[in-house]
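Researcher: Next sequence.
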Amino acid sequence: MGAIAKNNGTLFDGSRVCLAPMAGYTDAPFRLLCFEFGADFAYTGMVSADGLVRGGDRTRRLLGRFTGEGPVGIQLFGSDPGIMADAARLAEEENPAFIDLNFGCSVRKVIRKNGGAALMRDLDLMGRICSRVVEAVTLPVTAKIRSGWSRVEENYMEAGRVLEEAGAAAVTLHPRFRTQGFSGTADWGHIAALGDSLSIPVIGNGDVNDADDYDRLIRTARCRIVMIGRGAFGRPWIFRDITNRIEGAARAGVGAEKRIAILERHIRMAVDWKGERPGVLEMRKHYRWYFRGIPGMKAFRRRLTTASSFTGVMRICQELREENNRKWKKLA
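Model: Next structure:
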């Protein structure tokens, strides 16, 4: 007989859209922005179970949250059931909403440690990890998987059943194979098939970049909760757009002034959270997403990614606002 899922009905049954766990991106400042625009819940980036159990300060900092954030789950990765259980106990001390297990990461350095999507090739071990973590904590435990290792090793249906039997409260499916990485197209039909076969919630993920994509995924995959990943980079207001679509409200545009103000808020929060220099450096990877698809932004983006002080980046943002208002209107 399998473990009993510790399902948080209020969270998983009442939610519609959440922010995906993405290493290096879903830190406290970015999560708070997404919550402010309507994300129902979110995740930390991947946290190494080994690093957490060893007491690494850098790993522990990944668990922190900003005042004002909504429900956040801590995502763990690793391959040893005992260490994963110990890490989950430590993570529970931070009072997250749930614990999530990463069985879908395709990054080589994670795979080499038999973590992430490598567990799609060892469903027995996947099940034992999930069972041990469920037994170790009082929180709901969820898991994120892919469609399989490769097209000839498609096993998401089996993985979903293993996790349900092990006591998972919900499963997220990113319907690509490990061999695809983020290339190709997500097969939303896999989400529908898995949802039809399980009694626990299946969260759909992959290729949702706007409210239209959300509608198509809901119709195709027949899931109640959608996870937004890269579609939120530089566009945290995607959650408001989706909520407005769900509620039948008009889409609220994000013009130049608002977009720059959101970017400036993101910069301020990053500096508040990490300190001036680390915060400014961390923000560099976000600029290309805020300005993607907008012609004429290359020079400003280059200046932002080479600026090394808070005062410097804020001055450049002000120049961007003035230039845009006077001449371009390209951010409207």
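Model: The chain has 15 helices and nine strands. The chain has two domains: 9-247, 256-328.
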